Amino acid sequence: MNVENRISELIDLINYHNDKYYNEDTPEISDYEYDNLMKELIKLEEENPKLKRVDSPSSRVGGKPLDKFEQVVHKIPMLSLANAYSAQDLRDFDKRVRDMVEDEVEYVVEFKIDGLSVGLTYNNGLFEKGATRGDGIVGEDISQNLKTVKSIPLRIKDQEEVVVRGEVFISKDDFKKVNEQQEKQGLQLFANPRNLAAGSLRQLDPKLTAKRPLDIFIFNLEYVQNTDFKNHSEALDYLKELGFKVSPNYKVYNNIQDVIDHIKYWTDNRGELGFEIDGMVIKVNNLAQRETMGYTAKSPRWAIAYKFPAEQKKTKILDIIVEVGRTGTITPTAVLEPVRLAGTSVSRATLHNEDYIREKDIKINDTVLVQKAGDIIPQVVEVIKEERTGDEIDFEMPKKCPVCSEPTVRLEGESAVKCINISCPAQIRRGIIHFVSRDAMNIDGLGESIITLLLDKGLIKDIADLYTLNKDEVVKLDRMGEKSANNLLNSIEKSKSNDLWRLINGLGIKFVGTKGAKILANNFKDLDLIMSASNEELVNLEEFGGIMANSVVKFFQEEKNIKLIEKLKSCGVNTKSIQDESSDIAKIFEGMKIVLTGTLPTLKRNDAKEMIESRGGKVTSSVSKSTTFVLAGEEAGSKLTKANDLGVKVIDEDKFIQLTGLKSKEEVKNELK
Ligand SMILES: NC(=O)c1ccc[n+]([C@@H]2O[C@H](COP(=O)([O-])OP(=O)(O)OC[C@H]3O[C@@H](n4cnc5c(N)ncnc54)[C@H](O)[C@@H]3O)[C@@H](O)[C@H]2O)c1
Ligand SMILES: [Zn+2]
User: Fold this and answer.
1) Where's the active site on this chain (predicted)?
2) 84 inside domain
3) Which of 56, 218, 453, 661 maximizes the CB count within 10 A of its CB?
């Protein structure tokens, strides 16, 4: 592969993993692996400056801010940190620092809190605004959510503008409690405290955030009007005075060996802390020296993050099982004797593919070292060969698909063994699970078990069949009452009017995650245009690389995919971008004033609001004679009474969903008579 292609491949991969990590909180590779991709990219760009792209992730921080929240431009850019993985990396850092400044150097060493970075702005002594880091320049305004964090002071003594930066986190104990709660309620467990903290902070409803035990440590004074601080440590003391909960136990040293010893201590003893740290941050203390050293596009030159090696434990591989994925790939998974790692019990680890197993020489009954990638995904680091007893059994990839029994294939140049039977039930099942998931069509009430039932009973054969389900069929399913059947059908119906990007993501095109789907939807606005787009058109999209473009073109060339999309269209699934003004979503509520009250059985308030607004209607808060109709749920109070008094039409959710499916304003008016 030539350098240009490799650069473009690396950019695609890094963008993909950024999206998984920052926006979806579900990383697929370890930080170490990620950092290696980034290192390779930076190296190639340095060697070939002409090939460096302006949109390269090497010169950017973090992920794009999500469009769920208002965007804020940071007063002071919120940068990232360069990484160190060894004592040698730290000595190299020390040398770079000493080459840049003449005087003595002091370092402050702080815990690297494993949470979510936020910036807080105060004015006139009051909390004004709080934001996520986003891409470093623009973040998301999450002020409402941050106000629910009890350790963030709403009032401080300084009356001028003050900007601070800190890390929102959840303590180990609180994390355990939340997961115990989740388990009791049969809900999905959170992978680790950072994951939980990130998910909680990005809730659209601050009431949900308020229920989560979020905490914060402030680690930097970003901006203050009048200062004569000489050192960072003085600034931290000032922050304490102002009432901030400052990152505890920072130390000041004047030589790198002391820094290394201190870090060594915490590498071994971090388990004793009540909160998770994923490393230590080393910063030059003197602020004038910091200014001399300056910044790269991504991070300050005067600081570095030392990352702890992932926690590793010994355990035994009891068995190796295989699973058939959405694209037919058969993935081997090690069944482990359970061990506790980074806060949860681990009993499975993916073994990726045949080559991986050969390379690491993994056998059933082997004793192995395991760790969690990105503190989330368990993986086998290595086999401890000295502990082999002779009882080890070689593993062979199955010659037949474990689900449909058709022969498996391994294509040339690929590492995956696949089932290529397009009607293999396992693939269809996984594909449907992905289609209905939160970041795709977001169909509530359609869990894995119901999907399996629907497939087993032959009620659905593909994603499009979901839209032809009827109530009689659904009610007959095990444990499905009248009410849940209604709810389910309503959620399915509602998903028809989803924005285009959800559908694209739901189709499960390889390498096109949520972000890729949004790029396609925003640029083409219409699925038909995406289907007919050329490789060249796609590659030219910002942040869309060769791998993604190829994959999209290939997907839409396949006969079965074209048929599937025809079928979805004929069921009334929206294939156009809604946010676009010229879009075809009929403005059937135009000029209408609609009031929401009470709790709706399936729709969230925001969803209902969005459905009204995207159809040209206005949601108002109080009922009057000019109100067109009131959409009322359970426990609707005074607004309902008032509507009845004034003779304003009141409808329930079922009726509402029926209205949203109508084609014209006239039809809506008729229905409301
Ligand atoms: N596994 C993956 O797929 C994947 C994807 C993207 C990023 N990553 C990981 O994330 C890293 C990049 O993330 P990042 O930009 O958030 O950088 P980072 O996590 O390496 O370090 C910067 C962050 O540390 C936090 N921090 C905590 N305590 C601090 C303190 N006392 N002082 C200063 N900062 C402190 C800050 O919030 C800051 O944003 C990569 O190096 C990689 O390891 C992994
Ligand atoms: Zn199969």
Assistant:
1) 112
2) yes
3) 218
Length, in residues, of the chain: 673
Q: For 497-532, give one letter per residue: b (16+ CB within 10 A) or e.
A: bbbbbbbbbbbbbebbbbbbbbbbbbbbbbbeebbe
End residue of a domain, out of 382, 417, 452: 417
The band of 491, judged by pLDDT with boundaries at 50, 70 and 90, is: very high
Q: Which residues, in sequence order, are CB contacts of 311 under 8 Å at separation 6+?
A: 341, 342, 371, 372
DSSP state of 277: E
Same domain, 327 and 295: no
- What total of structural domains would you count in the chain? 5
The yes-or-no answer on residue 112 being catalytic is yes
Q: Which domain holds residue 341?
A: 312-417
Do the annotations mark residue 634 as ligand-binding?
A: no
Decide if 30 is inside a domain. Answer: yes
pTM for the full predicted model: 0.61
CA of 20 to the centre of ligand 1 (A): 14
- Asked if residues 244 and 157 have their Cβ atoms less than 8 Å apart, the reply is no
257 and 214 within one domain: yes
Write out the residues surrounding ion ligand 2, Cβ under 5 A. Answer: 401, 403-404, 419, 421, 424
Report pLDDT for 357: 95
**What is the predicted pLDDT for the residue at 582?**
40
Q: Which residue owns the Cα nearest ligand 1 atom 28?
A: 112
Known binder of ligand: residue 558?
Answer: no
Q: Is 33 annotated as a binding residue?
A: yes
Same domain, residue pair 77 and 52:
no
Tokens of 635: 């426990």
Residues 91 and 194 in one domain: yes
Residues 85 and 221 in one domain: yes
Minimum mean pLDDT among 216-230, 394-408, 476-490, 548-562: which range?
476-490
